[in-house]
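The freezer alarm interrupted the setup, so I double-checked each line after restarting. Inputs confirmed:
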Amino acid sequence: MPVEEALARLLALAEASPILEQEFVKLADADGRVLAGALTSTLDLPPWPNSAMDGYALRLADWTGEPLVVSQRIFAGQAPEPLQPGTCARIFTGAPLPAGADCVEMQENAEVMSDQRVRFCETMRVGQNIRPQGQETRIGEQVLAAGTRLGPIELGLAASLGCGQLAVVRRPRIAVLSTGDELVEPGLTLGPGQIYNSNRRVLCSWLLRLGCEVVDAGILPDDLPRTRQRLGEFKDVDLILSTGGVSVGEADFLGIALREEGELALWKLAIKPGKPLTFGHYRGVPVIGLPGNPASTLVTFALLTRPYLLRRLGVAAVAPMQIAVPAGFSWTKPGNRREYLRGRIEQGRAVIYPNQSSGVLRSAAWAEGLVEVLEGRTLAEGESVNFIPFSELLG
Ligand code: AMP
Ligand code: MG
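Predicted 3D structure, all chains:
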Protein backbone atom coordinates (compact mmCIF):
# COMPACT_ATOMS: atom_id res chain seq x y z
CA MET A 1 0.00 0.00 0.00
CA PRO A 2 1.48 3.34 -1.02
CA VAL A 3 2.15 5.81 1.78
CA GLU A 4 -0.46 8.28 0.47
CA GLU A 5 -3.15 5.64 0.48
CA ALA A 6 -2.36 4.52 4.04
CA LEU A 7 -2.41 8.13 5.16
CA ALA A 8 -5.69 8.84 3.39
CA ARG A 9 -7.28 5.79 5.02
CA LEU A 10 -6.01 6.73 8.46
CA LEU A 11 -7.25 10.29 8.07
CA ALA A 12 -10.67 9.04 7.00
CA LEU A 13 -10.75 6.76 10.06
CA ALA A 14 -9.74 9.72 12.23
CA GLU A 15 -12.52 11.87 10.80
CA ALA A 16 -15.00 9.10 11.54
CA SER A 17 -14.09 9.17 15.25
CA PRO A 18 -13.34 12.78 16.11
CA ILE A 19 -12.66 13.81 19.69
CA LEU A 20 -15.29 16.47 20.29
CA GLU A 21 -15.33 17.11 24.03
CA GLN A 22 -13.96 20.51 24.95
CA GLU A 23 -12.72 22.23 28.06
CA PHE A 24 -11.84 25.77 28.99
CA VAL A 25 -8.21 26.34 29.93
CA LYS A 26 -6.29 29.44 30.91
CA LEU A 27 -3.98 30.79 28.22
CA ALA A 28 -1.01 29.75 30.34
CA ASP A 29 -2.18 26.14 30.10
CA ALA A 30 -3.18 26.15 26.44
CA ASP A 31 0.22 25.70 24.77
CA GLY A 32 0.16 22.74 22.41
CA ARG A 33 -3.62 22.30 22.64
CA VAL A 34 -6.10 22.46 19.76
CA LEU A 35 -8.64 25.27 19.58
CA ALA A 36 -12.16 23.81 19.79
CA GLY A 37 -14.10 26.68 18.20
CA ALA A 38 -13.16 29.63 16.04
CA LEU A 39 -11.71 32.60 17.91
CA THR A 40 -13.59 35.75 17.00
CA SER A 41 -12.38 39.19 17.96
CA THR A 42 -14.47 41.17 20.45
CA LEU A 43 -12.25 44.21 19.92
CA ASP A 44 -10.92 46.40 17.22
CA LEU A 45 -7.16 45.97 17.32
CA PRO A 46 -5.73 48.49 17.88
CA PRO A 47 -8.83 49.82 19.67
CA TRP A 48 -7.99 53.40 18.67
CA PRO A 49 -5.59 55.03 16.22
CA ASN A 50 -2.16 55.43 17.78
CA SER A 51 1.30 56.62 17.04
CA ALA A 52 3.85 54.28 15.49
CA MET A 53 6.71 56.63 16.41
CA ASP A 54 8.04 58.94 19.07
CA GLY A 55 7.37 62.40 17.64
CA TYR A 56 4.65 64.98 17.14
CA ALA A 57 1.00 64.66 16.19
CA LEU A 58 -0.59 67.42 14.14
CA ARG A 59 -3.32 68.19 11.68
CA LEU A 60 -1.52 68.57 8.39
CA ALA A 61 -3.85 71.35 7.21
CA ASP A 62 -2.70 73.45 10.22
CA TRP A 63 0.89 73.40 9.08
CA THR A 64 1.95 76.30 6.94
CA GLY A 65 5.67 75.72 7.24
CA GLU A 66 5.86 77.82 10.40
CA PRO A 67 6.84 76.13 13.71
CA LEU A 68 3.91 74.88 15.89
CA VAL A 69 3.33 75.25 19.63
CA VAL A 70 3.23 71.99 21.62
CA SER A 71 -0.15 71.96 23.37
CA GLN A 72 -0.01 68.56 25.18
CA ARG A 73 2.21 65.56 25.84
CA ILE A 74 0.72 62.09 25.30
CA PHE A 75 2.38 58.95 26.64
CA ALA A 76 1.25 55.37 26.00
CA GLY A 77 -1.53 54.55 28.45
CA GLN A 78 -2.93 58.09 28.56
CA ALA A 79 -6.20 59.42 27.17
CA PRO A 80 -5.47 62.59 25.20
CA GLU A 81 -7.48 65.81 24.90
CA PRO A 82 -8.60 66.77 21.39
CA LEU A 83 -5.82 68.57 19.57
CA GLN A 84 -6.03 72.34 19.88
CA PRO A 85 -6.28 73.79 16.38
CA GLY A 86 -3.04 75.26 15.10
CA THR A 87 -0.85 73.32 17.54
CA CYS A 88 0.92 69.97 17.70
CA ALA A 89 1.10 67.34 20.46
CA ARG A 90 4.23 65.61 21.71
CA ILE A 91 3.40 61.91 21.32
CA PHE A 92 5.15 58.60 22.04
CA THR A 93 4.92 55.19 20.42
CA GLY A 94 1.66 53.41 21.24
CA ALA A 95 -0.04 56.53 22.62
CA PRO A 96 -3.57 57.27 21.34
CA LEU A 97 -3.76 59.88 18.62
CA PRO A 98 -5.62 62.99 19.80
CA ALA A 99 -8.88 63.72 18.00
CA GLY A 100 -8.24 66.20 15.21
CA ALA A 101 -4.70 65.00 14.44
CA ASP A 102 -4.13 63.19 11.15
CA CYS A 103 -0.35 62.90 10.93
CA VAL A 104 2.62 62.01 13.13
CA GLU A 105 6.08 63.27 12.36
CA MET A 106 8.98 61.41 13.93
CA GLN A 107 11.14 63.37 16.30
CA GLU A 108 14.22 62.90 14.11
CA ASN A 109 12.56 65.15 11.49
CA ALA A 110 11.56 67.85 13.97
CA GLU A 111 13.54 70.58 15.64
CA VAL A 112 12.62 72.15 18.97
CA MET A 113 13.21 75.91 18.77
CA SER A 114 14.50 78.04 21.63
CA ASP A 115 10.91 79.22 22.25
CA GLN A 116 9.83 75.53 22.57
CA ARG A 117 7.87 75.61 19.31
CA VAL A 118 8.60 72.77 16.91
CA ARG A 119 9.77 73.18 13.34
CA PHE A 120 9.09 70.35 10.92
CA CYS A 121 11.91 69.84 8.45
CA GLU A 122 10.47 67.37 5.92
CA THR A 123 7.31 67.28 3.87
CA MET A 124 4.60 65.23 5.54
CA ARG A 125 1.50 63.39 4.41
CA VAL A 126 -1.86 62.59 6.00
CA GLY A 127 -1.86 59.28 7.90
CA GLN A 128 1.89 58.93 8.19
CA ASN A 129 3.18 57.04 11.25
CA ILE A 130 -0.37 56.35 12.42
CA ARG A 131 -1.59 52.85 13.17
CA PRO A 132 -5.29 53.10 12.31
CA GLN A 133 -7.99 51.64 14.55
CA GLY A 134 -8.70 48.03 13.60
CA GLN A 135 -5.76 47.73 11.21
CA GLU A 136 -4.92 44.29 12.63
CA THR A 137 -8.42 43.03 13.46
CA ARG A 138 -11.99 44.30 13.39
CA ILE A 139 -14.67 43.36 15.94
CA GLY A 140 -16.41 40.20 14.81
CA GLU A 141 -13.60 39.01 12.56
CA GLN A 142 -12.43 35.40 12.88
CA VAL A 143 -8.75 35.42 13.80
CA LEU A 144 -8.13 31.71 14.45
CA ALA A 145 -10.06 28.81 12.96
CA ALA A 146 -11.36 25.87 14.98
CA GLY A 147 -8.72 23.15 14.87
CA THR A 148 -5.77 25.53 15.14
CA ARG A 149 -2.89 24.20 17.17
CA LEU A 150 -1.98 26.72 19.81
CA GLY A 151 1.63 27.77 20.23
CA PRO A 152 3.35 30.92 21.44
CA ILE A 153 2.19 33.00 18.47
CA GLU A 154 -1.48 31.97 18.58
CA LEU A 155 -1.55 32.41 22.36
CA GLY A 156 -0.02 35.87 21.99
CA LEU A 157 -2.71 36.75 19.46
CA ALA A 158 -5.44 35.51 21.83
CA ALA A 159 -3.85 37.55 24.62
CA SER A 160 -3.81 40.67 22.44
CA LEU A 161 -7.58 40.24 22.04
CA GLY A 162 -8.04 40.00 25.79
CA CYS A 163 -8.95 36.30 26.01
CA GLY A 164 -8.18 34.96 29.48
CA GLN A 165 -9.08 31.41 28.54
CA LEU A 166 -9.82 29.36 25.46
CA ALA A 167 -12.03 26.41 24.62
CA VAL A 168 -9.74 23.57 23.58
CA VAL A 169 -10.33 19.98 22.57
CA ARG A 170 -9.75 17.66 25.51
CA ARG A 171 -6.48 15.79 25.55
CA PRO A 172 -6.63 12.43 23.80
CA ARG A 173 -5.79 9.49 26.07
CA ILE A 174 -3.36 7.10 24.45
CA ALA A 175 -2.28 3.75 25.86
CA VAL A 176 1.28 2.91 24.85
CA LEU A 177 2.21 -0.76 24.79
CA SER A 178 5.61 -2.26 23.98
CA THR A 179 5.36 -5.86 22.89
CA GLY A 180 8.30 -8.22 23.02
CA ASP A 181 9.68 -10.89 25.37
CA GLU A 182 13.13 -9.48 24.81
CA LEU A 183 12.37 -6.05 26.26
CA VAL A 184 13.66 -4.73 29.57
CA GLU A 185 13.15 -1.25 30.96
CA PRO A 186 16.23 0.97 31.17
CA GLY A 187 17.72 1.08 34.64
CA LEU A 188 17.35 -2.69 35.09
CA THR A 189 19.95 -5.34 34.29
CA LEU A 190 19.86 -7.09 30.93
CA GLY A 191 19.55 -10.86 30.89
CA PRO A 192 20.65 -13.10 28.02
CA GLY A 193 18.92 -12.22 24.76
CA GLN A 194 17.36 -9.08 26.16
CA ILE A 195 17.46 -5.48 24.95
CA TYR A 196 16.31 -2.25 26.45
CA ASN A 197 12.91 -0.86 25.54
CA SER A 198 13.56 2.33 23.62
CA ASN A 199 10.30 2.69 21.68
CA ARG A 200 8.29 3.31 24.81
CA ARG A 201 10.41 6.34 25.63
CA VAL A 202 10.25 7.66 22.06
CA LEU A 203 6.46 7.36 21.88
CA CYS A 204 5.57 8.49 25.40
CA SER A 205 7.73 11.64 25.10
CA TRP A 206 6.47 12.39 21.62
CA LEU A 207 2.81 11.95 22.58
CA LEU A 208 3.23 14.34 25.49
CA ARG A 209 4.60 16.93 23.08
CA LEU A 210 1.51 16.41 20.94
CA GLY A 211 -0.70 17.29 23.89
CA CYS A 212 -1.80 13.73 24.62
CA GLU A 213 -2.39 12.12 27.98
CA VAL A 214 -0.30 8.97 28.01
CA VAL A 215 -1.40 5.79 29.71
CA ASP A 216 1.93 4.03 29.91
CA ALA A 217 1.06 0.37 29.64
CA GLY A 218 4.62 -0.92 29.89
CA ILE A 219 5.86 -4.12 28.30
CA LEU A 220 3.55 -6.79 26.96
CA PRO A 221 5.08 -10.26 26.66
CA ASP A 222 4.63 -12.21 23.42
CA ASP A 223 1.79 -14.29 24.78
CA LEU A 224 -1.81 -14.53 23.58
CA PRO A 225 -3.71 -14.71 26.90
CA ARG A 226 -1.70 -11.79 28.30
CA THR A 227 -2.31 -9.80 25.12
CA ARG A 228 -6.08 -10.39 25.33
CA GLN A 229 -6.11 -9.49 28.99
CA ARG A 230 -4.04 -6.32 28.58
CA LEU A 231 -6.02 -5.01 25.61
CA GLY A 232 -9.22 -5.42 27.62
CA GLU A 233 -7.85 -3.12 30.34
CA PHE A 234 -8.04 0.01 28.22
CA LYS A 235 -11.67 0.93 28.08
CA ASP A 236 -11.50 4.67 28.38
CA VAL A 237 -8.64 5.46 26.02
CA ASP A 238 -8.93 7.00 22.56
CA LEU A 239 -6.21 4.85 21.04
CA ILE A 240 -4.07 1.87 21.90
CA LEU A 241 -0.65 2.34 20.33
CA SER A 242 1.60 -0.66 20.37
CA THR A 243 4.97 -1.46 18.91
CA GLY A 244 6.41 -4.75 17.79
CA GLY A 245 4.85 -8.06 16.97
CA VAL A 246 3.09 -6.92 13.83
CA SER A 247 5.29 -8.58 11.29
CA VAL A 248 3.85 -11.67 9.72
CA GLY A 249 6.09 -13.54 12.14
CA GLU A 250 4.85 -16.18 14.52
CA ALA A 251 4.50 -13.84 17.47
CA ASP A 252 1.72 -11.69 16.05
CA PHE A 253 -0.45 -11.93 19.16
CA LEU A 254 -1.82 -8.44 18.75
CA GLY A 255 -3.23 -9.40 15.37
CA ILE A 256 -4.76 -12.61 16.69
CA ALA A 257 -6.39 -10.82 19.63
CA LEU A 258 -7.78 -8.14 17.36
CA ARG A 259 -9.21 -10.69 14.98
CA GLU A 260 -10.99 -12.45 17.84
CA GLU A 261 -12.51 -9.46 19.59
CA GLY A 262 -12.65 -6.75 17.03
CA GLU A 263 -11.40 -6.08 13.58
CA LEU A 264 -8.02 -5.96 12.01
CA ALA A 265 -6.41 -4.61 8.93
CA LEU A 266 -2.81 -5.50 8.33
CA TRP A 267 -1.26 -3.17 5.84
CA LYS A 268 1.93 -3.89 4.00
CA LEU A 269 3.14 -0.39 3.46
CA ALA A 270 5.42 0.60 0.64
CA ILE A 271 7.57 2.45 3.14
CA LYS A 272 11.08 1.86 4.39
CA PRO A 273 11.75 1.61 7.23
CA GLY A 274 8.42 0.35 8.49
CA LYS A 275 6.67 -2.12 6.20
CA PRO A 276 3.95 -3.69 8.38
CA LEU A 277 1.33 -1.58 10.12
CA THR A 278 -1.76 -2.77 11.95
CA PHE A 279 -4.95 -0.84 12.26
CA GLY A 280 -7.90 -2.29 14.09
CA HIS A 281 -10.37 -1.99 16.89
CA TYR A 282 -10.46 -3.87 20.15
CA ARG A 283 -13.97 -3.77 21.61
CA GLY A 284 -14.49 -0.45 19.88
CA VAL A 285 -11.17 1.13 20.86
CA PRO A 286 -8.95 2.00 17.88
CA VAL A 287 -5.60 0.21 17.85
CA ILE A 288 -2.52 1.11 15.84
CA GLY A 289 0.32 -1.39 15.85
CA LEU A 290 3.65 -0.03 14.66
CA PRO A 291 6.62 -2.15 13.64
CA GLY A 292 9.09 -2.64 16.47
CA ASN A 293 12.39 -1.69 14.92
CA PRO A 294 13.19 1.70 16.43
CA ALA A 295 13.68 3.58 13.15
CA SER A 296 10.50 1.97 11.79
CA THR A 297 8.55 3.03 14.86
CA LEU A 298 9.88 6.55 14.42
CA VAL A 299 9.02 6.86 10.74
CA THR A 300 5.56 5.27 10.94
CA PHE A 301 4.67 7.34 13.97
CA ALA A 302 5.92 10.55 12.35
CA LEU A 303 4.26 10.10 8.97
CA LEU A 304 1.11 8.15 9.78
CA THR A 305 0.20 8.10 13.47
CA ARG A 306 0.90 11.77 14.19
CA PRO A 307 -1.38 13.06 11.42
CA TYR A 308 -4.05 10.50 12.42
CA LEU A 309 -4.01 11.78 16.01
CA LEU A 310 -4.03 15.45 15.03
CA ARG A 311 -6.92 14.89 12.65
CA ARG A 312 -8.94 13.21 15.43
CA LEU A 313 -8.51 16.49 17.31
CA GLY A 314 -9.89 18.41 14.34
CA VAL A 315 -6.59 19.75 13.00
CA ALA A 316 -6.85 20.40 9.27
CA ALA A 317 -3.17 20.99 8.43
CA VAL A 318 -1.52 17.73 9.42
CA ALA A 319 1.06 17.45 6.65
CA PRO A 320 4.59 18.38 7.71
CA MET A 321 6.36 21.02 5.66
CA GLN A 322 8.86 19.54 3.23
CA ILE A 323 11.66 21.41 1.57
CA ALA A 324 13.29 20.51 -1.70
CA VAL A 325 17.08 20.40 -1.39
CA PRO A 326 19.86 19.06 -3.61
CA ALA A 327 20.99 15.57 -2.63
CA GLY A 328 24.48 15.39 -1.20
CA PHE A 329 24.58 11.66 -1.94
CA SER A 330 23.76 9.38 -4.81
CA TRP A 331 21.16 6.60 -4.83
CA THR A 332 21.75 3.94 -7.41
CA LYS A 333 19.40 1.08 -6.48
CA PRO A 334 15.78 2.05 -7.02
CA GLY A 335 13.54 0.57 -4.31
CA ASN A 336 9.96 -0.64 -4.52
CA ARG A 337 9.17 1.14 -1.23
CA ARG A 338 9.41 4.83 -0.45
CA GLU A 339 12.46 5.40 1.70
CA TYR A 340 12.75 7.85 4.54
CA LEU A 341 16.45 8.16 5.17
CA ARG A 342 17.70 9.74 8.35
CA GLY A 343 19.66 12.73 7.18
CA ARG A 344 20.50 16.35 7.67
CA ILE A 345 21.44 19.41 5.68
CA GLU A 346 25.12 20.19 5.33
CA GLN A 347 26.19 23.12 3.17
CA GLY A 348 22.78 23.26 1.59
CA ARG A 349 22.70 19.57 0.63
CA ALA A 350 20.90 16.61 2.15
CA VAL A 351 23.34 14.06 3.51
CA ILE A 352 22.41 10.73 5.08
CA TYR A 353 23.68 8.71 8.02
CA PRO A 354 25.88 5.87 6.76
CA ASN A 355 23.92 3.11 8.53
CA GLN A 356 20.25 3.25 7.49
CA SER A 357 19.27 -0.03 9.17
CA SER A 358 15.77 0.10 10.64
CA GLY A 359 17.18 -1.09 13.96
CA VAL A 360 19.46 1.90 14.35
CA LEU A 361 17.94 4.77 16.29
CA ARG A 362 21.30 6.50 16.44
CA SER A 363 20.86 7.40 12.77
CA ALA A 364 17.92 9.58 13.79
CA ALA A 365 19.80 11.17 16.68
CA TRP A 366 22.52 12.20 14.23
CA ALA A 367 19.97 13.37 11.70
CA GLU A 368 17.85 16.50 11.66
CA GLY A 369 15.07 15.11 9.55
CA LEU A 370 13.91 12.59 6.97
CA VAL A 371 15.10 12.55 3.38
CA GLU A 372 12.42 11.15 1.11
CA VAL A 373 13.44 8.95 -1.83
CA LEU A 374 10.48 7.95 -3.96
CA GLU A 375 9.75 4.41 -5.13
CA GLY A 376 11.62 3.46 -8.28
CA ARG A 377 13.85 6.47 -8.06
CA THR A 378 17.59 6.80 -8.48
CA LEU A 379 19.45 9.94 -7.60
CA ALA A 380 22.62 11.60 -8.73
CA GLU A 381 24.29 14.08 -6.43
CA GLY A 382 22.73 17.48 -6.83
CA GLU A 383 19.29 16.21 -7.86
CA SER A 384 16.43 17.49 -5.78
CA VAL A 385 15.05 15.49 -2.83
CA ASN A 386 12.41 16.32 -0.22
CA PHE A 387 13.60 16.92 3.31
CA ILE A 388 11.19 16.86 6.27
CA PRO A 389 12.80 18.50 9.30
CA PHE A 390 12.21 16.71 12.61
CA SER A 391 11.10 20.07 13.98
CA GLU A 392 8.03 19.69 11.73
CA LEU A 393 7.23 16.30 13.18
CA LEU A 394 8.12 16.34 16.83
CA GLY A 395 5.50 18.80 18.02
P1 AMP B 1 9.03 -6.95 15.97
O1 AMP B 1 8.28 -5.88 15.23
O2 AMP B 1 8.40 -7.31 17.28
O3 AMP B 1 9.28 -8.16 15.09
O4 AMP B 1 10.43 -6.34 16.32
C1 AMP B 1 11.35 -5.97 15.33
C2 AMP B 1 12.68 -5.58 15.96
O5 AMP B 1 12.51 -4.46 16.79
C3 AMP B 1 13.26 -6.63 16.87
O6 AMP B 1 14.67 -6.60 16.70
C4 AMP B 1 12.90 -6.19 18.24
O7 AMP B 1 13.76 -6.65 19.24
C5 AMP B 1 12.97 -4.70 18.11
N1 AMP B 1 12.06 -4.04 19.04
C6 AMP B 1 10.76 -4.33 19.19
N2 AMP B 1 10.22 -3.56 20.14
C7 AMP B 1 11.20 -2.77 20.61
C8 AMP B 1 11.26 -1.77 21.62
N3 AMP B 1 10.17 -1.42 22.30
N4 AMP B 1 12.43 -1.15 21.84
C9 AMP B 1 13.52 -1.50 21.12
N5 AMP B 1 13.54 -2.42 20.16
C10 AMP B 1 12.39 -3.08 19.92
MG1 MG C 1 8.54 -8.57 18.78
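Quick read of the result. The longest helix spans residues 294-312.
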